[in-house]
Amino acid sequence: MSLLSLEAIDVHYGDFQAIYALDLHIEEGETLAVIGANGAGKSTMLKTIAGLLTPTSGSVVFEGRDISRTPPFKRVPMGIALTPEGRKIFRSLTIEENLKVGAHAKRPGPWDLAKIYEAFPLVADRKDRLGVNLSGGEQQAAAIARALMSNPRLLLLDEVSLGLAPVVVEQIYDALPAITAQGTTVLVVEQDVNQSMKVADRVQCLLEGRTVLEGAPANLSRDEIAAAYFGI
Amino acid sequence: MQWLNAVIQGVLLGGLYALLAAGLSLMFGVMRIVNLAHGVLAMVAAYLGFIFVNNMGVPWYLAILIVVPIMALVGYALQWGLFNRALSKGGLAPLLVAFGLAVVLTQLLQEIFTADNRRIQIGELGTASIQITDSIYLGWFPIITFIVAVLIIAGVQLFLNRTPLGRAMRAASDDPDTVKLMGIDNRRVYALSTALALATVGLAGMFIGMKTQFSPTYGDLVLIFAFEAVIIGGLGSLWGTLAGGIVLGVAQAVGSQINPSYGLLIGNLVFLAILAFRPQGLFPKAVTT
Ligand SMILES: Nc1ncnc2c1ncn2[C@@H]1O[C@H](COP(=O)(O)OP(=O)(O)OP(=O)(O)O)[C@@H](O)[C@H]1O
Ligand SMILES: [Mg+2]
Known about the structure:
The complex is a heterodimer.
Chain A: E1 4-13, E2 16-26, E3 31-35, H1 42-50, E4 57-62, E5 65-66, H2 72-78, E6 80-83, H3 95-102, H4 113-119, H5 121-125, H6 136-148, E7 154-158, H7 166-174, H8 176-180, E8 185-190, H9 193-199, E9 202-207, E10 210-215, H10 222-230
Parallel strand pairs in A: 3-8, 3-9, 6-7, 7-8
Antiparallel strand pairs in A: 1-2, 1-4, 4-5, 9-10
Helix pairs in contact in A: 3-6
Chain B: H1 2-31, H2 38-55, H3 60-89, H4 93-113, E1 129-131, E2 137-139, H5 140-162, H6 164-174, H7 176-180, H8 186-211, H9 218-233, H10 238-258, H11 263-277
Antiparallel strand pairs in B: 1-2
């Protein structure tokens, strides 16, 4: 049984359909990268998994349970955590307070403040600063750390590399092995194909709300990916 | 000496205004709700106090211990049943709901209690005072009111700064959607915020009812004072609200010293001056959004 399955979900914003009968399966312990151009529906898909959006048809199944209509705050205690696009660090809270808010669900597990500071030295250095006073890279690291504080079984990362310098992106991705080593299943969404190919066991490419290519990075050629990515 | 006396009386009065304003500040801070029913809710608390103290003979301090939890429950129910729905509609809905609530509650109070002036009896405490110098006497009741107000404001601010629920309230204020991703039910956080806000309104309403004559429409004046204190102080923290209340209280007391009929006028002028020259208030939020 997959840890998470999307079964033929349609997702709408009002009259506009962003996702069409999308299927996705992720096994426990796996790292899956979902790639796609702007507007492919990647963030929409993650929001649907996290519960901020409800599919208009089809279902979201987590550990065999249909959670399509479960509100987002009840999915966190089940073990689903999303690091949203744009990081969404609480601006008027310090970084440490942000982390503590992340631990609100009190899920038991390997991550606590001490562990986080060990794995993310960048976050430890900035723990007493207000969220608003962090650089983009610091915010991204803090946002991932905050999601980990809920000790998720499934960690959803939306556009980790967006707007960050390559060095910073490297630094942040360097923390990923420490996360997956805990058995955490990771779903990364990226526009940056190279970065996600490096870390993922499997890649799924979206185009206009549909899957156009799927497979292990080793089995996919650059041309194949480029064609799927741009829809040519 | 008269002036010093006026300033001291003003500071004491300001404590009450700050307490009154704290709930308004809290609801706006956490949920961006401008609670136009704030004043009349203080009057609801005053009438509850009137029933317990004047009709049933409960001592005033016990009546406070009964009225405050009742108001907190009212707050929870109002938020859950009314304001949360309005918030999900967005735009002007919460403001209109608050306005409607204010109108309905004022009418209801008038229906039940008539428009007659009332006052919660506190016996000789109402007139007991302590002499500071030859010409300065401080009433015990204003002193008690001030101390309670400062303690409550400090307590609420510490609660917001230090506790998990307080942190959740501040986080929800920053970003209500992201808070859900932390496993927090923001509707429940809102309900608890309004419960806390109305607990402070309940306390303030009781003190107003013991201090002056009130009627159902007195809530309008109460709402204005609360607004002025919040705006003068700035929306950064309840310490700002405390400062705003004190500035307003001192302005009114000094105004009354100039001419007994100038009190409200000077208070309003100081408010307008702050609005014109320092619209962010005396202690604005360090973080700008
Ligand atoms: N709140 C919204 N209201 C209406 N349409 C939306 C909304 N959010 C996204 N969309 C539309 O849904 C589609 C998918 O958007 P989504 O944000 O999921 O794309 P994405 O793959 O995450 O893109 P990007 O890489 O730019 O983040 C786009 O066509 C977008 O315009
Ligand atoms: Mg996106």
